[in-house]
Amino acid sequence: MQDNREVIIEAKNLSVSFLIQRHGINNIKDFIITMGIKSPFEKKNVLKNLDLTIYKGECLGVMGRNGCGKSTLLRTIAGIMTPDGGTLKVNGQVAPLMALGVGLEPELSGYENIKLVGTLMGLTKKELKGSLDSIIDFSELTTDEIEMQVKRYSSGMMARLAFSIAVAVAPEILIIDEALAVGDLGFRQKCAKRINEIKNSGSTIIYVSHHLEEIKNICTRAIFMEDGKIAISGDVNEVCDYYQTHLKRKVAIQTVI
Description:
Elements: E1 7-21, H1 28-37, E2 41-55, E3 59-63, H2 70-77, E4 85-90, E5 94-97, H3 110-120, H4 125-139, H5 143-146, H6 155-166, E6 173-177, H7 185-200, E7 204-208, H8 212-218, E8 221-226, E9 229-234, H9 236-256
Helix pairs in contact: 3-4, 4-6
């Protein structure tokens, strides 16, 4: 049966790799000596011929153990990483909330970061001006804190500011990678409410979390990644059940070993 929904992200045979350091290098001398023997780096294949289609208006939950390729997939969709194989089409403006504090300039104040990050996200001067007060109000940062250099912020303060900027205007594609794990319960609940508002506005959301209840409450479809590939895709509850079974099996194997 043909699916007539509008495709907003499509990956076919997507492969992404990066170089990791093979040998200890403490200075330029070590680097030169090592280079004379063999390359100090080795190629690590992270995404392996991955296929994924995401439709406009979907809220896709992404699950998997650490190191399975979740963050690499999101960084590639956001344009931070470049694929070295296959194709990737992204038909919309992406607002990435990739990790705590990513994208914030530590030497600038919170206020200056709002203007900088908002501009990089594609917000117009008019949108920034109209959203400035609401961003600050949502973050719950005081006047003194918003005028303080971000490098003085706690992890919770950075999370508040980064999220508040990312959701100031409903983006076409919102990427959230474990960014809501920090912060008090009240703020996390407020974030979840804002995410649902963005979802109801028709935006597409890609949501990474290890918390199954968050995935079930927010997402309309889910995938489970393993070793750089999608092991299962479909109904949220079925994928969450698969994830739990997978973790129990891993724990059982480790216990036996």
